Amino acid sequence: MRAVQKLETVIFGGTKEEAIALYKKAEKYRLEKDYKNAKTYWLKSAKYGNPYAMYKIGLCHYHGLAGEKNNKKAYLAWTKAVEAGHKESKFCIAVCCLNGFGTEKDEVRAVKILEELKEQNHAKATYKLGECYKHSIGGLEKNPEKADLYSVLACKMGYDPAEDIIEKI
From CA 4, how far away is CA 96, in angstroms rounded? Predict the structure, then answer.
């Protein structure tokens, strides 16, 4: 469990052991597709400052797992996770800003976040940034060549949906 290993370096309000134990219990329930109980333990782990648990809570709200779909709560959970240093949550914030999910639509902010993540070799952000160039989103000038380049980069980083684009190039 990569997330559990990374938790070892995060500073929590409680003990690392408590946070890790709660997170592991949540993941056990998640694997059983018992999202209600998983969310309960992610919430407990998040109280210790666990950014991975905060991210998972955001996913629960975004997809409507363990309750109603609520983009505002998802956005808020991911914002807390970003404040705690969680990179994937930052990508989720960018998607929310692009689409106005749980927050005001702000394509310029979304592009800025995607550019930051691209510089950190985030595959999905690189691909999404390419889509922004392809469709002239967020103040970017339409640039099909750059869009294609970013699709190739995303694919090389391991993002599978980019392979479909590459085959068309």
Answer: 26
